[in-house]
Design goal:
Blueprint (H helix, E strand, L loop, with lengths): L2 H6 L4 H11 L2 H7 L5 H14 L3 E5 L3 H14 L3 E2 L5 E4 L13 E4 L11 E3 L1 H12 L7 E9 L8 E7 L2 H10 L1 E2 L4 H8 L3 E6 L12 E5 L4 E5 L4 H4 L4 H13 L5 E4 L1 E7 L5 E7 L6 H7 L2 E4 L3 E5 L5 E4 L4 E5 L9 H8 L5 E4 L2 E2 L5 E2 L10 E4 L2 E4 L18 E5 L16 E9 L9 E3 L3 H9 L2 E3 L10 E3 L12 H12 L11 E5 L22 H12 L5 E4 L2 E4 L1 H12 L5 H8 L1 E2 H16 L6 H21 L2 E2 L1 H7 L1
Parallel strand pairs: 1-6, 3-19, 4-5, 4-10, 7-9, 9-11, 14-25, 25-29
Antiparallel strand pairs: 2-3, 6-7, 6-8, 10-11, 12-16, 13-14, 13-15, 16-17, 17-25, 18-24, 19-24, 20-21, 22-23, 26-29, 27-28, 30-31, 32-33
Helix pairs in contact: 2-4, 5-7, 10-14, 13-14, 13-19, 15-16, 18-19
Length: about 650
């Protein structure tokens, strides 16, 4: 049961064209006439029948169309122009400052395998919900129809996708974040044999409607529905909604040959001018953009599509063409390239949920700039010392405040981002907000052990999800976006990284990263980080040299650790910083009890899942046994010199 067809009842291209003739004006009709693929026309028509917009605007990606969309957004009040030319501000409702995971569902039959971490709803009920909430939701509004590629046109892993929305803010965001492929859309759909469809409307955009907001994902018909919400993570479903469909495709159609990951893509410079490409996973709000920008050349900060090329290499492309980034903590000291775009004229930026002062300048937590006395933020008027109804201070900006910009504006943007052949990717990292257990960097001894590092990410939760707090497991930082069974996804990971088509020069380096260790976790009394944000440049540089067999390492039960002399040299060379042996000892000591507890947490959690590959439990058991033996020999805390002496 396809809800869009069931409710729209348009089943032929002729019916679609007749509808367009009655609903579109002459200019928009001339635009849509260039789209010929019958399935594309039918889905657009059914969305029009369902939502009943007063007008339809076909976005071809021309400068004229882009200007019109920006103008509509400002006229509607979805965005407001700021003092700096090209900058606008968008505010979501105070109760919708992140993904509404509790109101997000997969449309699934009872027999369909759906992730145990997700909500589900049978098709018959979903059709009723969609009809009662989306029928006529765009009356007195304009439906904007966009034609996009999630990735470079011509790439084997890029996804064609329609964006149908009444929100000009969402359409404006899509133009910054994705490649408008109006002229290539028919050809790409014909070549791929599929496309994604996204239908969204903010409706009346009222606080009282938020309990009724929903995000639906129909895996079978590759269609998303979202209503009565505006936060881009819930509504710009080209992003995480379609990422789910891409994960589905990788797991169930192209298992072992393709992956769709929640990863940044960055290039790290090595000796003699070489660039080694790295992709890395981290939950939203855990430093993924910072790590991506720590590389020397930038492709993406959030998503990655990868496949095994004919030359035996793993190739990666970014489905996106821009950044929808968390702005908290972004400042001139740690993020100079981002700050240039955010604070200097000449760039287009959409801000969301930051504070805007009386001079129409945005401010946010952690910008290391003087804070204004008052302004407007996500909850309305704000002033220094303002509290909420619980007498808690209201921060200057929401922790999930965002900026949206095109990647090409960054000084370290790589033209390789537009290459449909992707970049040869040698390094894969996995990280989370772990303040007390794992060292800053460690490398898996085998691809299977690397998959287990990804499976065992544990992180403090962040402000990206509404109503979620505490510490939680975050497998591959991708768990919220895995539509099917977790065991199937894990099997796809094992098969991909062990694919015999990956040839020796391109064997992956798979590593854990953690730069959230605190002094308190290593015997101190402070919650301050043991290192600094900029240290990640050194961890990446060490991994780059490791990939080319140019550094020493210490074999341990959890993987290979850096040797001190290599790190001391790289700290001085890369960021001109001394790296004392005492800090190395604190960061790379193995606290065996904590690591064993972490392993047992994973064993217990995965034992509750169905069809988890036995390989995971074997690797965890081997690591735990080795750590227990080590604990008997050397105690609870194993300093690096123990492994140096063995080496």
């Amino acid at each position: 049961m396809d809800p869009l067809h069931t409710l729209g009842k348009i089943s032929s291209p002729d019916q679609a064209l007749n509808l367009f003739a009655s609903k579109l004006d002459r200019i928009q009709l001339a635009k849509i006439a260039k789209i010929k693929h019958p399935d594309v026309l039918i889905r657009i028509a059914n969305a029009i029948v369902l939502c009943r917009p007063s007008k339809v605007f076909i976005n071809t990606g021309s400068e004229e169309d882009k200007d019109a969309i920006r103008r509509i957004s400002i006229e509607k009040g979805e965005e407001r122009a700021l003092a700096m030319d090209g900058h606008t501000i968008h505010f979501d409702l105070a109760g919708e400052q992140g993904r509404i995971v509790d109101r997000t569902y997969y449309i699934a039959e009872p027999e369909d395998l759906v992730s145990s971490l997700a909500n589900r709803m049978p098709p018959e009920q979903a059709v009723k919900e969609i009809e009662s909430n989306m029928s006529g939701i765009m009356e007195n509004l304009t439906m904007i129809v966009g034609f996009y590629m999630r990735g470079p046109v011509g790439s084997p892993v890029s996804n064609p996708a329609l964006e149908l929305t009444s929100s000009a803010y969402i359409s404006h965001s899509a133009e910054l974040l994705y490649r408008n492929a109006f002229n290539d859309f028919d050809h790409e759909v014909e070549q791929k044999g599929y496309f994604f469809t996204n239908v969204h409307s903010e409706g009346l955009n009222r606080t009282e409607d938020l309990p009724h907001a929903r995000v639906f994902m129909d895996r079978k018909y590759q269609t998303t529905y979202a209503w009565k919400c505006t936060y881009a993570g819930n509504t710009l479903l080209l992003k995480k909604g379609n990422h789910r469909f891409a994960v589905d495709k990788a797991v169930y159609r192209d298992r072992g040959r393709e992956l769709s990951e929640h990863m940044f893509i960055t290039g790290i410079s090595g000796p003699d001018g070489r660039t080694t490409w790295c992709a890395g996973a981290a939950p939203s709000g855990c430093g993924k953009t910072t790590t991506a920008m720590a590389g020397n050349v930038f492709i993406g900060d959030d998503l990655a599509q990868m496949w095994i090329a004919q030359d035996g290499s793993i190739r990666t492309v970014n489905p996106e063409n821009g950044i929808f980034g968390i702005v908290e903590g972004v400042n001139a000291e740690g993020d100079p390239l981002l700050m240039k775009v955010l604070r200097q004229p000449g760039y287009e930026v959409i801000w969301s949920n930051v504070l805007v002062d009386e001079k129409s300048k945005p401010h946010w937590i952690g910008n290391m700039e003087p804070a204004p006395e008052k302004g407007i933020n996500f909850q309305g008027e704000w002033y220094q010392g303002k509290t909420n109804d619980k007498a808690e201070p209201i921060p200057i900006s929401h922790p999930n405040s965002r900026y949206t910009l095109a990647s090409k504006n960054l000084d370290n943007y790589s033209p390789e981002a537009a290459n449909p052949k992707g970049v040869v990717t040698r390094i894969f990292t996995y990280s989370g907000r772990d303040e007390d257990t794992m060292p800053p960097v460690w490398v898996a001894k085998t691809p299977d052990a690397g998959v287990v590092i990804g499976a065992c990410i544990v992180s403090a939760t962040t402000a990206t999800e509404v109503g979620v707090t505490g510490i939680k497991r975050a497998p591959w930082a991708n768990a919220p976006f895995i539509p099917g069974a977790l065991g199937d996804y894990m099997d796809a990971q094992f098969k991909f990284f062990n694919n015999p088509d990956i040839t020796e020069p391109f064997k992956p380096v798979m590593a854990g990263l953690n730069y959230f260790l605190t002094h308190r976790a290593r015997g101190g009394d402070s919650g301050k980080l043991l290192g600094e944000k900029k240290d990640v440049k050194v961890w990446l540089a060490w991994l780059e040299r490791y990939a080319h067999n140019e550094v020493e390492y210490l074999p341990t039960p959890i993987g290979n650790l850096p040797a001190y002399n290599d790190l001391a040299r790289l700290f001085k060379q890369i960021i001109d910083k001394d790296y004392p042996r005492s800090l190395y000892d604190m960061q790379f000591a193995l606290y065996t009890v904590k690591i064993i507890q972490r392993i047992e947490l994973q064993e217990k959690a995965y034992a509750k899942e169905e069809n988890i590959p036995e390989k995971l439990f074997e690797i965890l058991a081997t690591q735990k046994t080795a750590l227990l033996d080590l604990k008997k020999k050397a105690g609870n805390v194993i300093m690096p010199d123990y492994f140096e002496n063995l080496h």
